[in-house]
Amino acid sequence: MTDTKLIKWDAADHLKAEEDMALYLDACLDENDPVLLAAALGDVARACGIARLARDTGLTCEGLGQALSVEGNPSLATIMKVMAAFGLRLRVEVMLPRASE
User: Fold this and answer.
1) Beta carbons of 24 and 43 less than 8 angstroms apart
2) What DSSP character marks residue 16?
3) What is the pLDDT of residues 10-37, one digit of tens each?
4) Structural contact between residues 60 and 54, judged by C-beta atoms closer than 8 angstroms
5) By C-alpha distance, which of 1, 96, 78, 8 is closest to 37?
6) CA dihedral of residues 26, 77, 69, 73 (deg, nearest 10)
7) What are the distances in angstroms from CA 37 to CA 50, 65, 97, 101?
8) Of 77, 80, 78, which is closest to residue 91 (Cα–Cα)?
9) Whole-Å CA distances, 69 to 1, 11, 34
10) Closest CA to 36 of 12, 81, 68, 80
11) Which of 25, 32, 63, 64 has the least CB density, counted as fewest CB within 10 Å?
């Protein structure tokens, strides 16, 4: 029997191009889970560099790290600042036809 070595997989290591970041965040938004979105924004932030993101958003590195974690609960204003700093924006689309009343 051989020993299996596991390595920690980090999404930030695979987010190099803006299109990859946008697709990743879009997939996370599809899950409709605010905790997942915050964590995904944290992954993208680490891929881009937290210090640069802090400078671009006017937020602190510590505040960003806390807000963009699984335990974080970023405000919509923080999410919008972070997305704008990434050169991305949120969009709205119809999910399903509404039930007729």
Assistant:
1) yes
2) -
3) 999 999 998 999 999 999 999 989 889 9
4) yes
5) 78
6) -110
7) 17, 14, 24, 32
8) 80
9) 38, 13, 11
10) 68
11) 32
Q: Tens digit of pLDDT for each residue in 25-84?
A: 999 999 989 889 999 999 999 999 999 999 999 999 999 989 988 888 899 999 999 999
The token pair at 5 is 């070595």
- CA distances from residue 52 to 2, 44, 79, 82 in whole angstroms, order as listed: 43, 12, 16, 11
Best CA proximity match to 44, nearest among 28, 24, 26:
24
Cα–Cα distance for residue pair 36/85, rounded to 1 Å? 19
Query: Domain-by-domain residue ranges, the chain?
Result: 15-85
The pTM (predicted TM-score) of the whole model is 0.80
